[in-house]
């Protein structure tokens, strides 16, 4: 066991504060990582505040982790000291169920182990995330980060990136498709970048006309203001795919009306109850509403490789860990373009 | 023009009564049909009562029509006098849009013409349905009915049959799949018969334990009582496909929990708002909720041919047209196994 410095919420709804935590010793299949950067995901805040229930304190949040390998176990062949690596939302899964065998560990039928607040099967208790000096992770959940792109801006790829990449790939978004990305935040801005890089005609769908210029600079071909009924009517039945990144329950019926026959809207943000969906809106046009959560390890690596090839990173604002509570407030107020990333050097201050 | 006898609702929410209506003269591409039987669909009642708004009176309901060809136009090659034929929910569509070209006239992008209360482009006004002596229909919307099965019990195949057949085919239900049919009524009983004939393991999902024996005699392998939380828990994440035939808005979350990863529940009954769907229930497991309406002409013919080969018909209760108002009351009270069919000879009484 080694003690490392971390930032944690010690009790319910308490602000984040320094803490010493234990990390396990490096086992044969483990990779020990010196954390350079960690992204701030809205779900970190939900967990710290126990918004979803079941939070285990102290919570050390953080599942958008980038760092360099410090040490590897005897059985680790694909990583060595100094490698640039990442860890996302999961640190373990059963590896034996159908989902794991298909490379979809996020849907592990025995329950994937989340990077923080998951069940720690090594030390007991629960897992601690990336607002920390170091992390020790099984090699199967360590990702290789391309060296040629801006390292600090790769961290949010591990959650915001894969959460949007996976459904775009799974629902076969392709060149020329008309794709709508609903909501321009941490997820939405990556959805726009990816769909654009895949060759789709990308429409940013937002309530805020003020976001038009930003959306276009991220790669959107046009902007649809969802409060404008006339615009919405003009785009009715025209989308091949909709990626809905809105993080809370809302009325999805106006978006369903935008889908072409046989097209799908995928929810990646809202885990709460959605406003009542009109059955007729699905029935007339054989439309679907689906959900998708993060992505498997194999597809996360594919995404990272794609980002290396296409020079895609997240738009980030760097902070020191000492400013994390202010950053949380700004995330809650949607006042960030588009993701905070913590420079973990600041933890040593 | 010829005058024919029909049964119609003359004014809003009025009971059905006899009426003389006009049918168009037989044009070159038309088929004139002597109606033998017409099924009673719940949507007939919704239209007569103007439950969905926009009903045009007099309403002559009926879109599960079986009869014999009386007369055909010069350009009709595939039907001749005396042929046993059917007409379903549609009598025309643009035939030029993508949906029509793909044989999915029910999703015609210019709007299919419904068999009753649709826009009549021949005589003006609106179309009149099958509670009638005769109907004149374009050859493209006439179906061939197998002679080897019980004729009167084929009528509901034209709506209840195709409404359940189409999604089972579209979502590739196959041998060995675990398929749940939710709700045992006119649609549900056909869903059970079809899914069973396709080789699926069929589970009838119902609130009513009293329906167990009936479901099994229709072909269900087992019955799941949806009010029994323990049973529902045992079947969680186990279904390859769910066909939801419940005709009104309801809480679909317990059913979504039954779906396997990547599986779909298709709504074919409820056109109203559904109770709020929890985003998390879709997201965890990449599940889908979709809708589907009737089916195209090509697949309707395929279904009828399949029924001829597998000796599949609907379970029906025959009535005379003079008893239609009582039948409507019984449909509303779910007191029919499983579809009323009107013997149209009674119209001549």
Automatic annotation (TrEMBL), chains A, B:
Pfam families: ADH_N, ADH_zinc_N
One GO MF term: alcohol dehydrogenase (NADP+) activity
Keyword field: Metal-binding, Oxidoreductase, Zinc
Gene3D superfamilies reported in the protein's UniProt record: Medium-chain alcohol dehydrogenases, catalytic domain (3.90.180.10), NAD(P)-binding Rossmann-like Domain (3.40.50.720)
Cofactor(s) of this protein: Zn(2+)
Kinase recorded as keyword: no
Keyword hit for Nucleus: no
UniProt domain Enoyl reductase (ER): residue ranges: 11-294
Family listed: Belongs to the zinc-containing alcohol dehydrogenase family.
Protein name: NAD(P)-dependent alcohol dehydrogenase
UniProt lineage: Bacteria, Pseudomonadati, Bacteroidota, Flavobacteriia, Flavobacteriales
């Amino acid at each position: 066991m080694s003690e490392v410095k971390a930032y944690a919420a010690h009790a319910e709804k308490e602000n984040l504060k320094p803490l010493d935590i234990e990390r396990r010793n490096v086992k044969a299949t483990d990779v020990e990582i010196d954390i350079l950067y960690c992204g701030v995901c809205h779900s970190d805040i939900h967990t710290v505040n126990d918004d979803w229930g079941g939070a285990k304190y102290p919570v050390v949040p953080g599942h958008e982790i980038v760092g360099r390998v410090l040490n590897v176990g005897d059985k680790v062949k694909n990583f060595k000291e100094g490698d640039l690596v990442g860890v996302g939302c999961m640190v373990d899964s059963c590896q034996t169920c159908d989902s794991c065998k298909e490379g979809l560990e996020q849907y592990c039928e025995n329950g994937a182990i989340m990077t923080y607040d998951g069940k720690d099967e090594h030390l007991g208790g629960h897992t601690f995330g990336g607002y920390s000096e170091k992390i020790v992770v099984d090699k199967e959940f360590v990702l290789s980060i391309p060296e040629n792109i801006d390292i600090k801006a790769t961290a949010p790829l591990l959650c915001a990136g894969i959460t949007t990449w996976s459904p775009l790939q799974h629902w076969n978004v392709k060149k020329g498709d008309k794709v709508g990305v609903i909501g321009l935040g941490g997820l939405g801005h990556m959805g726009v970048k990816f769909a654009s890089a895949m060759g789709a005609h990308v429409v940013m769908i937002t309530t805020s006309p003020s976001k038009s210029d930003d959306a276009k600079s991220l790669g959107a071909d046009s902007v649809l203001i969802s409060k404008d009924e006339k615009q919405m009517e003009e785009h009715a039945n025209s989308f091949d795919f909709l990626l809905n990144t809105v993080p809370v329950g809302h009325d999805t019926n106006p978006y369903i009306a935008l889908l072409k026959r046989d097209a799908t809207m995928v929810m990646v943000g809202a885990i709460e109850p959605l406003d009542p969906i009109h059955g007729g809106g699905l029935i007339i046009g054989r439309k679907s509403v689906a959900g998708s959560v993060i992505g498997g390890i194999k597809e996360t690596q594919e995404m990272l490789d794609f980002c290396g090839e296409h020079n895609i990173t997240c738009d980030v604002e760097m902070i020191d860990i000492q400013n994390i509570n202010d950053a949380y407030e700004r995330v809650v107020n949607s006042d960030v373009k588009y993701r905070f990333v913590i420079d973990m050097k600041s933890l040593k201050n």
